[in-house]
Amino acid sequence: MNKINIDAVILVEGKTDVSYLSAFINSYFFVTNGYDINDEKIQFLKLVSSVKKIIILTDPDEAGKNIREKIKNQINSVIVVEIEKNSRKNYMKFGVAESNISYIINALNPFKTTNEIVKYNYNLSSLISLDENPENIRKKIITKYRLIDGNNKSLENQLNMLGIKPGEIL
């Protein structure tokens, strides 16, 4: 199966959702880690929403509803794609990772693009190691782009969501 391209940030609850979706979708993903959608994440998503569409794709349960409502109340431009409980392939659980592939593809079809989804490799490990105090460069990057502190992979993912090119980092 060819992957479909969605030129947006797809917001999901967990890493399992990203693992499942990335098997058939090329896109940028933002993980809330369940209810853990604090002000820092909301501020980052507001920033992202100025350069990319944000599609909320959370589970059809109370936690998913709370996440959707919290984000919709703070960011007007988000797009909510609802997953129905009857869309699941596993009747023991219900959620994004348990939904049928064809159901998700149909739900995201209006956002499909033929454009390639560009994801840069910033090689932050090498860049950060150039400084005597590697934390200086990390802090500079996080502060300059208002990123959420995390590991290098997380920072690179955030830079990609914002459309920052590798040569523009510092």
What's the short story on this structure?
39% of the residues lie in helices and 14% in strands. It is of the alpha/beta class and 170 residues long. Helix 1 (15-21) links the parallel strand 1 and strand 2 (25-31).
Structural class: alpha/beta
Query: Could you tell me the radius of gyration in angstroms?
Result: 17 Å
Distance between the termini: 39 Å
Q: What is the chains' assembly state?
A: single chain
Number of strands: 5
Mean pLDDT: 88
Low-confidence stretches: none
Percent strand equals: 5-15%
Give the topology string: H per helix, E per strand. Answer: EHEHEHEHEHHH
Helix count from the secondary structure assignment = 7
Name the overall outline. globular
Instruction: Tell me about the largest β-sheet.
Output: 5 strands, mixed
Helix content: 25-40%
What is the strand and helix layout of this fold?
Elements: E1 4-12, H1 15-21, E2 25-31, H2 39-49, E3 53-56, H3 62-74, E4 79-80, H4 101-108, E5 112-113, H5 124-129, H6 134-145, H7 152-161
